[in-house]
Please model this.
Amino acid sequence: MDPHEAFDLAWLNSDRKPRYGHPRKEKLRLADLFCGAGGLTLGVLEAARALGIQVDPVLGADLDPSVERAYRGNFVPACFVNRPLQELINGDPDLVRIHEWEYGTETCLTREEITFRNEVLKDEDGIDFLVGGPPCQGHSNLNNHTRREDPKNQLYGRMARFALVFKPRHILIENVHGAAHDRGGIMDKTRAALNRLGYKIDTAIVKGEEIGVPQTRHRIFMIASRDRKPSIVNAVASHRVEEQRSFDWSQRGLQAGRNGSPLDIVTKPKPETAKRIAWLHQVDAADGKKKRYDLPNGLRPDCHQNDTHTYKSVYGRIREDRPAPTITTGFTVMGQGRFVHPHEPRTLTPREGARIQFFPNWFFFGEDGGISKKALVSLIGNAVPPKMAYVLALELLR
Model:
């Protein structure tokens, strides 16, 4: 394999956390809003390590109670907030006037915003790098109920308001590409607000499989900098892989059943589901070499027994020689997507899903603290692959 591929695989198989905290020639303070497991933070840390920059995670914020233990365990932030962000950054995201930014007046900040800023900074310097993945379920094409109109969609705009309060140099925001079609136009509003604050901005969809992430995960990113005009297209072009990485590549070197961890628990299927999984792992009778990857309609549940249903990959088997499908919070359940293991009659384990998400062996998901399997799987499925953040952080920090 080529050197970049070899490096990535060695990093995934590493059992020891790299040294991020020793003194460097430059130091950046980072805040991660809606942080989840911390995929964005990890990507920025790796980009900074490659450039000889020290990053101090100052703030993590997320409402999910299973998040804080994992985020603190990996990054040791100075402050972690598990309150609704809109209570702390509660001003109108549209009220970001450039003259107030330039002259540093406090006239447009709320009392809560000033208090929050003082609590986070504690007389230290400001935030240098802001990252965040606002809740995306309301933008997702898998959401047929409140798609494009979910009130949570407006949390995207809190990123711009946070920029007004804390004045970071660089910003990276991730979401599903459906965010661009929000009926409230929240991405356009956020971009306009950041532009009024003096940021140079770029927005584009990044396809994970094009930059070495072993899954077909497509996300829209907005990156912004006060230093220079960033380019997502250039960032992706400089990290584009010649050959997409497959499921089998993502699992290479991974030891099964490591220490009986909750990360290695195999979901026990219901009898009907077990029959479907077993059928997929039988060799096709008409061709002794042909593998089965899709269930016929007759073996699907009633709601999936027609040729026009939307999600044809559901109940499917992963193709071992291709990038895995997008990992979701249902990746351990056959009926949630193409999540049947290609070599064994079962669905994926949490650890296998984490590898597809590009998390290394050493990464801590809170698995030794009584976290439920459901919470563990959600933490992994909702994460941003660090490799995607790494590529864009390099573009911002160079």
About this structure: Confidence is low (pLDDT under 50) at residues 138-148. Strands lie at 26-33, 53-61, 79-81, 129-132, 170-176, 200-207, 218-225. The longest strand covers residues 53-61.
